[in-house]
Amino acid sequence: MATLTLNATGHEVRVSATRILINNRWVDSASGKTFPVVNPSTGEEICQVAEADSADVDQAVRSARAAFEQGAWRKMPASGRGSLLNRLADLIEQHSGELAALESLDNGKPYSVAKAVDVAATVACYRYFASPI
Q: Degrees (nearest 5) of the Cα angle 20, 24, 27?
């Protein structure tokens, strides 16, 4: 369920990823536990997110191991992996406003800093690792 709220600079933020991503699926925690995410600027609860415990970590590790051993990534040429990493960077750039608003809401930093530094550095990191060696 999405929560709609405003960050400190008035940017509308839709918080929808509140579950755990395991094996390309959003799932509740095995225990069903959640914990609050609090806006540090106001002290108000933004949303509840799934609280991963050892059972969730074990499942994530099993899924990651299977993906590594049997998935396409391992056998894909470096150029293919680079293309996918660049596509991810493109998507982050396309959604930079939304991601910066979420970052600003979550940690209280100014939206402009989240967008110009945090999101931009994330894009630069993916582009770096997508580059040929």
A: 30
Predicted confidence at residue 4, as pLDDT, reads: 52
Residues 2 and 22 sit within 8 Å (Cβ to Cβ): no
Specify the pTM. 0.81
Per-residue confidence (pLDDT) for residue 74, from 0 to 100:
87
Name the CATH superfamily, with its identifier, for domain 3-130.
Aldehyde Dehydrogenase; Chain A, domain 1 (3.40.605.10)
Nearest to 51 by CA among 36, 34, 63: 34
- The token duo for 22 is 């395991």
Could you report how far apart the first and last alpha carbons of the chain are, in Å? Answer: 42
